[in-house]
Write a structure and sequence with these properties.
Chain A is α/β, with parallel strands linked by helices. Chain A has four helices and five strands, in the order βαβαβαβαβ. In chain A, strands 3-2-1-4-5 form a five-stranded parallel sheet, with helices on both faces. At the A-B interface, helix 1, helix 4 and strand 5 of A face helix 1, helix 4 and strand 5 of B.
Chain lengths: 131, 128
C-alpha cells in the first residue's frame, strides 16, 4: 500500500521517534516499503557547539541501530523551517506516508508539537501520527 | 499492532471517506483489527417539530456495502468531540480518516479532521 515512508526525527531527542520508527518498520515489513529518515538541524546552532556536519555520524549511528535489515536511508537537512523542510522532502523523495510522533514526550500525550501539526495539516501525502 | 480501528464517515457524503475506508479495510485485514464506522449527525432544531432524519438505514446500507459489522451513530453538536468520545468508548487505538472536502485541493484538511488529528489520544492516520 505504501512504497516510501518518511520518518522525521530530532537527533537531539532520538527517544521521541522510537515508536514512530517501529510503526514504520511494521508497515514496511507488510508493504515492502523503503524508509527514509530525515533530521533537520539548525544552520547556526546556539553557541556553535555543533556544526551541521557533526550531526552526520549521529544519524549514521542511529540508522545502523534501527536498520534490522530494512531498506532505511538517512538524510540531514540544514536550516529552514522544520515542517517546511519535511514537506520539501515529501515532494522530492515522492513519499506516500509520513509516520511521526505527535509531541514532545515530556508533555502530555494529547498534545501535538507545532511542527507535527503543520505537517499533518499541510502535507501532500498521508500522515500517521503515532501516539 | 492495531486492534480497534475507527473510521469517521459522513453518511450524506460517504465519498469523502472512500479512500480512508479502503485503507482502513486493508489495515484491518492485515492486522486482524476490528473496524468500527462512526457517523456524527448534527442535532437539527426544527421549528416545525419534525424529528431529525433517521440515519440508521443509511448506516446499515453503508456497513453492508463495506462488509463491516459495527457502526456507531451519534447525535452531537461537535463532530470532532463526538469522534474523540467514541474513540475512548470503544478503546480505538487508530483513527483512519480522510483529510478534506474533495471539492478543495488535496493539501487542505477539514476543521473536524484537523481537530481530531491534533487532539485525540490515540494514533491517527490522515489519508490523502
Amino acid at each position: 500500500m505504501y512504497k516510501h515512508i518518511l520518518v522525521p526525527i530530532d537527533l537531539g531527542e532520538i527517544g521521541a521517534a522510537e515508536q514512530a520508527i517501529n510503526v514504520a518498520k511494521h508497515i514496511a515489513r507488510r508493504d515492502g516499503s523503503r524508509i527514509s529518515v530525515v533530521s533537520i538541524v539548525p544552520a547556526w546552532p546556539e553557541g556553535l557547539a555543533k556544526t551541521p556536519r557533526d550531526y552526520q555520524p549521529d544519524l549514521d549511528t542511529y540508522i545502523d541501530g534501527v536498520r534490522e535489515g530494512f531498506d532505511i536511508e538517512g538524510e540531514i537537512k540544514v536550516g529552514g523551517s522544520i515542517s517546511g523542510r519535511i514537506i520539501d522532502t515529501i515532494e522530492t523523495k515522492k513519499i506516500d506516508l509520513v509516520v511521526m510522533a505527535s509531541h514532545d514526550p515530556r508533555i502530555t500525550d494529547y498534545l501535538i508539537g507545532s511542527n507535527a501539526a503543520h505537517v499533518v495539516l499541510h502535507a501532500p501525502c498521508s500522515v500517521l501520527v503515532v501516539r | 499492532m492495531y486492534k480497534m480501528i475507527l473510521v469517521p464517515v459522513d453518511l450524506d457524503y460517504p465519498e469523502v471517506a472512500a479512500k480512508a475506508m479502503e485503507v482502513a479495510k486493508e489495515m484491518s485485514r492485515a492486522e486482524g483489527a476490528s473496524l468500527t464506522v462512526i457517523s456524527v449527525q448534527p442535532i437539527i432544531i426544527d421549528e416545525s417539530g419534525t424529528p431529525p432524519p433517521d440515519y440508521q438505514p443509511k448506516m446499515n446500507a453503508y456497513l453492508a456495502k463495506h462488509g463491516t459489522a459495527t457502526g456507531l451513530l451519534k447525535l452531537g453538536g461537535s463532530i470532532s468531540a463526538e469522534i474523540r468520545y467514541a474513540a475512548d468508548e470503544i478503546g480505538a487505538d487508530l483513527i483512519v480518516m480522510g483529510s478534506h472536502d474533495p471539492h478543495f485541493t488535496d493539501y487542505l484538511i477539514g476543521s473536524n479532521a484537523a481537530h481530531v488529528a491534533l487532539h485525540t489520544p490515540c494514533s491517527v492516520l490522515v489519508v490523502r
